[in-house]
């Protein structure tokens, strides 16, 4: 079994791999601080060692420095005239306000050196987000400051910094870090507190708990069904499928985020995690629905030849589209432009299509044959010189079993383009023998034979009486020919041969009872008499024909 077949058969594995990829992607904003590349930075600006070349880099670097407790470096991210302890205090207050109030939408912040440029009148100003205060909404702004040779950097605007002390005084609810033991907060792995690692490891535990919940609900529903239907053999149903359980985990995390005060980077991570869980669960659920739809359609029409192959192909295409759509949603969420990837896939698709032109031609022809039901399993076909019974109709080729018990694989594109004769599709079989009688047969005998054969065919239960026709066709060179025609209502070819044998024997009996005989290949000898010098010479002359003839002379007088 190939890897693609395993993916089609087990969509849950695909969804789990997809989920792991998405969760690892969700950790990027917290684990790393994006730095502008040389292509993003303007030619005259150099890379800032503090990561202030872009608005997103400035805020992520500031929060990272603030979490480490380095107030002197944190003050370098502020556009303020304050210095020393005052600047460090203001930086601390700003970090607390951002961690407690700023919405976790850092992925929407511009990661370009020029910013998002929302207002052409203020091109060097960008909005990080909006927080709610007692005096109304407050925009968190960053502005681009020119530092001369050091280049341009993004700093928190003076307009925002003026309101930070008042907003800081409004904060009263304790953070989760204040409610946890100190060793869980101070202990860090890869610059991430230990309690956040424990929360991440709790995701599998939550998923297992949802499985336990599903079993408990299934036990209750199963007991109720057995009691109501009075059938103790009924099994407990599965109430919550795995993708539904993933959605429950995502909803639980979203509810906890609204109740627990986490730092901004932690909220950003868990918000992205919830989004990734929802995308993965929806992708998984759609794959399961496509599989159930395939099974339903195959079970509804099990006799349709090749339908399983076409439905499997359609299901594979749908699963690929669903997976690809999920990847695009993830890229859009993280602000990645998928245009280049789509262009690359388009070029790659054209190359694959050109390389697999014949294969695609056979697949498309196979889908056409299966959809039109032109070829079915069990049909007896005649394809040019090939006659046999169809054993399998695939997407690429059709297997035919010949009377010699050999198997011929014919590409579907050839079947679609050639003249196809389905022998087994006949609703009736044509009984059409040509009977030759000897020339000694009298007209009365001929009429008796024609009438007897007609009555025989009309009375036979396996023949279509409206199609019966018996006529004296012609005087051929060597026999009197009778044309017999009728359609036999037989189930298959073997049944037709049995009925035909019975009818031919009956025709022979009718001819024999009338006193006539069937013509058969023979030779007729004529003797010619020539008188020369009063001597008679018998000269034999042979003429081919039907029947048994006595010798005649040249004048036709019997000898």
Brief summary:
The protein is 49% helix and 18% strand. With 559 residues, it is of the alpha+beta class.
Task: Describe this entry's structure for a reader.
The chain has 559 residues and is α+β, with helices and mostly antiparallel strands. The protein has five domains: 3-9 and 195-345, no CATH class; 33-173, no CATH class; 358-425, SH3 type barrels; 429-513, Alpha-Beta Plaits (2-Layer Sandwich); 520-559, no CATH class. It contains 18 helices and 16 strands. It has helices at residues 3-9, 11-26, 28-31, 55-67, 71-74, 85-101, 158-170, 176-179, 182-186, 194-229, 242-257, 264-300, 307-333, 339-355, 357-372, 412-417, 443-459, 493-513; strands at 125-133, 136-146, 152-156, 188-189, 192-193, 380-383, 386-393, 397-401, 407-411, 420-422, 429-431, 434-437, 469-475, 480-488, 521-532, 535-546. The strands form five sheets. The protein has a five-stranded antiparallel sheet. β1 (125-133) and β2 (136-146) form a beta hairpin. α17 packs antiparallel against α18 (493-513). The protein is elongated and about 145 Å long. It starts with a helix and ends in a 13-residue tail after the last strand. The model is unreliable at 1-9, 13-45 and 536-557 (pLDDT under 50).
